Amino acid sequence: MNNLAIEVKNLSVEFHLRGKTVKAVSDLSWKLKKGNTLGIVGESGCGKSVSAMSILRLIPNPPGKITSGSIIYEGEDIVKVSDRKIRDIRGKKISMIFQEPMTSLNPLMTVGKQISELLERHFDMSKKEIYKRTKNILDLVQIPDSDRWLNGYPHEMSGGMRQRVMIAMALVCEPSVLIADEPTTALDVTTQAQVLAILNNLQKKLGTAVVMITHDLGVISETADHVIVMYAGKKVEEASVIDLFKKPKHPYTQGLMKAIPNIDQISKNKGKPERLQEIKGIVPSLHDLPVGCAFANRCSYVMKKCKKEIPVFEEKSKKHWASCFKDFK
Amino acid sequence: MEHYTEDNLLLEVINLKTYFPVKKGILGFQKEYVKAVDDVTLSIKSGETLGIVGESGSGKSTLGKSIMRLVKTTSGKIKIRGKEITSLSKKEMFPIRKDVQIVFQDPYSSLNPRFTVGKIVSEGMRLHNICQETEIQEKLIKIFEKVGLREFHIDNYPHEFSGGQRQRIGIARALALNPRLIIADEPVSALDVSVQAQVINLFMDLQEEFELSYMFIAHDLSVIAQICSKIGVMYLGNIVEITDRETLFKNPQHPYTKALLSSIPMHNPQSKKKQHQLIKGDIPSPTNPPSGCKFHTRCPFVKKICRLEKPVLKQLEKGHEVACHLV
Fold first, then answer.
1. How far apart are the first and last CA of chain A?
2. Measured distance CA(A305)–CA(B242) in Å, rounded
3. Residues B79, B42: contact at Cβ < 8 Å?
């Protein structure tokens, strides 16, 4: 039996805006094993969220459109299945946690109702069972006093609690794939640590495969097994989390790692910390990508070739891929 | 160690309280207060960089705004270069504003969309008569160059810039008045990682060049650590620990500081087995803060005294102050 939870093959997503074509995601492929966590890291506008939304076909069409590629889940191509079928998958088999817990919860509905609605939609359960499952999942995400909160509204909760409710909603149907799109970005560090711990715990308990999308390399290093780095809609590097942090092989990944203040080092060094190594310039706009490598203008190793040709995404060392003309040993 | 006299104190904040009234009851007669800043005392010497770190709701931004007198303070004193400013009128405050400038968090909403950025940056120079009208253009070009913008940018409007560039405009605006102290309120939290590094570097370079002092407010301890030599940790309107960078990382004393440090995700996947020292629950509401030590509801080492008595900042050793009953 194949042990893949989900596979994305050569996915391209385009948006048509004001006569311009924006290639939000181009030719993206990845695989996620059952029970594993795939980290997708990149800065705003790199296409990480769009690629996640397209898994559940949540891209608004128009202006967005999946122009090519396939998403294989349980032997079927999600890109091609009927709308009715995708509605059965959403929330039950593949679910999603969004970044902003305030705007993703319905302010007019009690927390309990929002969670139980999913069970009502997807399962044939008695009211009693639904109540039990709902309370149970709230306990699992460590909402204190879950009986009271079943009748509470989102506005009464803190950001961390709301995000825990989002996790409860996403996991109540015990999906096999969970897509977490910047689940902790809006939270404080101590709350972030709590939420990540809960997520990790439940993942182990339920055997869920997780796609963790974030801009924070710290979160990636703590949660992911395997990582892909995206830049300007393309995958630029892919490796296991240990290999990636040990020897990043794309200049962009290297730059990202050096650009973050490193507490470990700062606390060891006495006196004034050194300047950070910045990546010059800004991300190119997606409707006007340069001819060659999209990172060429910001790269410190740039060669003539980089501005003419797009480097191939190839295996640089065992199970470690990158798209760069230069080989980093 | 250099000996600092009173004159070297650029900013002194003494027992500052900023409360916001919240109306309660049917007719709004009952008043409650959000104690955003509750008895904060700190000082910044010339050339020093103080970082204030805390989670949302800790009162760190209100502290910054209180010092700028952008919000009304309830009690306490703020002295800038020895001059008490809390009771000054708008007019009397005006010349002092030149010395203390602020850079805001959101580079999208803090620039007037109808002004060219040249006008945004030069407005302060005109108001404060920094230089002759004829010299303004020349000075603008210089400042733009300093913050990494080009001359042709002067006539553009804010919407034509990226987030990082807008933050540079915000910095240029503050810098135009040759201030002594810049209060930076979460200046990089809205920016992408790669751009964040550019702006942090800019802050560090400018400090060296203009001998600026900063009060750097952020929720991200790693950003604070990169730029600040002295760090204060805030929790629910109080400073719970304040010391220099090395001591804070090597020898944190307050349980909240310890929790904060251990909550930061490390960039080392092999150490992921390391258990975080998690603290329970969320930050309580500042309208109705817990009695005694405000952290006692989440503290893993809580004792009886913590619930009853509010700890004061005690000096552990020179330059290391902690507010906790247990140290």
1. 37
2. 52
3. no
Question: What are the chain B neighbours of A189 within 8 Å (beta carbons)?
Answer: 55, 219-221, 260, 263-264
Token pair of A152 as six digits: 């509470």
Sheet of A64-73, strand order:
A20-33, A4-17, A64-73, A76-77
Q: Which residues pair with A320 in a beta bridge?
A: A317
Give CA–CA dist B213/B78, Å, rounded: 16
- State both tokens at A61: 């069409």
Instruction: Kindly list the residues from chain B whose CB atom is less than 8 angstroms away from the CB atom of residue A244.
Output: 269
How many angstroms separate the CA of residue B134 from the nearest CA in chain A? 33
CB A199 within 8 A of CB A210: yes
**B33-72 confidence digits (pLDDT tens):** 888 999 999 999 988 899 999 888 888 999 999 999 999 9
Tell me if A263 and B56 make a contact (CB, 8 A cut-off). no
For A217, A276, B196, B204, the CA distances from A281, given in Å and listed in that order, are: 20, 15, 12, 18
| Residue B100 to chain A, least CA–CA distance (Å) | 24
Q: Determine contact, residues A283/A295, Cβ cutoff 8 Å.
A: no
Give the pLDDT confidence of B80-107 residue by residue, as tens digits: 988 899 988 989 999 999 999 999 888 8
> How would you label A33-45 residue by residue, b for 16+ Cβ within 10 Å and e otherwise?
bebbbbbbbbbeb
N- to C-terminal Cα separation, chain B: 27
Q: At what angle do helices A251-259 and B193-210 cross, to 10 degrees?
A: 50
Contacts (Cβ under 8 Å, ≥6 apart) of B320? B242, B243, B244, B247, B251, B253
Collect all residues of chain A within an 8 Å Cβ-Cβ radius of residue B270: 242, 245
Backbone angles phi, psi at B229, to 5 degrees: -90, -25
Instruction: State how far the Cα of B138 lies from the Cα of B135, in Å rounded to an integer.
Output: 5
Model pTM score: 0.85
- Angle formed at CA B258 by CA B257 and CA B261, multiple of 5 degrees: 85
3-state secondary structure B255-314: HHHHHHHHHCCCCCHHHHHCCCCCCCCCCCCCCCCCCCCCCCCCCCCCCHHHHHCCCCCE
State the ipTM, two decimals.
0.81
Write the CA distances from B268 to A131, B26, B168, B273, B274, integer angstroms. Answer: 41, 55, 32, 10, 10
